[in-house]
Amino acid sequence: MLAIIRFILVLISCILICLLGTIYSLIRFKNPNNVGQISRWFGRLNRLFGLKVEYRFNPKSPTTPAIYISNHQNNYDMVTLAYMVQPRTVSVGKRSLMWIPLFGILFWASGNIFLDRNNRKKAQHTMNELANRINKDQLSLWIFPEGTRSRGRGLLPFKTGAFHAAIAAGVPIVPVICSTTHNQVKWNRWDNGYAICEELDPIDVSGYTRDNVRELAAYCRDVMEKRIAELDAEVAAKEKMKKD
């Protein structure tokens, strides 16, 4: 019964956010602050899923443009990590998102950027254009460098597009991570425990070039993987204390 009630509430909430967000975005068409505002609306839905999410923003977060990279686990990222999106930040997503009912038009109207991942040459050109836009429009980008949801497989290998764009634009990379949520949410369970989302220290890219971009990607992945493991241990300790 709880699962049915939860599903109805989530469905209604998502439809309302998509409709109101689309109207809001069409009034302020592709305003760079649209995405952050609407993402926070989605981020507030975590309690509907029985999740208690702790958000840790970093005082060292840059006030100038940056590229935010995050682990991409599952659909619940929309109610965990979404709340971490900073002002003047837009996300980069695959073109197929456009065809998701209601969400597709919201993604487009709010100012996010589509990337054709099936066309490598075109995708690289898009990343070069993004590097120009970052400084010209004072935009930050939110990118999932894994390119797809990991679904319990751990942190997947990183694609290099985000890192090429950061080097070309000369902006820092800011990792944003969430503790593991794979198989954590049970729709028939009232309390689905804790999750922690954390913004890590900015990573300077000035010492990297296109020739060693893979080293940068590997370094960022290593930093994120280690911290995710630490957050998972912290969440486990909190769950143990709750049971005791």
From TrEMBL:
Residue ranges of the TM segments: 7-27, 97-115
Phospholipid/glycerol acyltransferase domain boundaries: 66-181
InterPro entries: AGP_acyltrans, Plipid/glycerol_acylTrfase
Keyword Calcium carried by entry: no
Catalytic activity: a 1-acyl-sn-glycero-3-phosphate + an acyl-CoA = a 1,2-diacyl-sn-glycero-3-phosphate + CoA
Keywords: Acyltransferase, Lipid biosynthesis, Lipid metabolism, Membrane, Phospholipid biosynthesis, Phospholipid metabolism, Transferase, Transmembrane, Transmembrane helix
Record Pfam families: Acyltransferase
GO biological process, one term: phosphatidic acid biosynthetic process
Pathway assigned in UniProt: Phospholipid metabolism; CDP-diacylglycerol biosynthesis; CDP-diacylglycerol from sn-glycerol 3-phosphate: step 2/3; Lipid metabolism
EC number: 2.3.1.51
Molecular-function annotations in GO: 1-acylglycerol-3-phosphate O-acyltransferase activity
GO cellular component assignments: plasma membrane
Record note on domains: The HXXXXD motif is essential for acyltransferase activity and may constitute the binding site for the phosphate moiety of the glycerol-3-phosphate.
Family under the similarity heading: Belongs to the 1-acyl-sn-glycerol-3-phosphate acyltransferase family.
PANTHER family named in the record: 1-ACYL-SN-GLYCEROL-3-PHOSPHATE ACYLTRANSFERASE
NCBIfam families in the record: AGP_acyltrn (TIGR00530)
Name under which the protein is recorded: 1-acyl-sn-glycerol-3-phosphate acyltransferase
Native organism: Actinobacillus delphinicola
Gene: plsC
